[in-house]
Amino acid sequence: YGFLSGCSQRVRVGNHTSSSLILNTDTPQGCVLNPLLYTLYVHDCIPAHTSNTITKFADDTTVVGLISRGDESAYRDEVDRLLSWCGDNNLVLNTNKTKELIV
């Protein structure tokens, strides 16, 4: 459970106040604690192959893999492991923001 779960919130614009909404999620987007909480949550998400790197910043994660002689197996395995790790840790990848770049 998130530290805000069960709390209520309202939005006020000028003299108008919305009805109360009970939160059932973790932290709101833009919360100053989000980068720290994300870092603590994903600290054990590490690469399985020495040819790959997993870089995390704020709430973004990047997998970088060295593909040599056309062998993508270690890189593809790393991506599969990341997907499994996310599933095991109740994280959902935003496929609209997910990109693959091969250089």
Automatic annotation (TrEMBL):
Q: Which SUPFAM superfamilies match?
A: DNA/RNA polymerases (SSF56672)
Highest taxon listed in the record's lineage:
Eukaryota
- Per UniProt, residues of the Reverse transcriptase domain are 1-103
Can you say what this protein is called?
Reverse transcriptase domain-containing protein
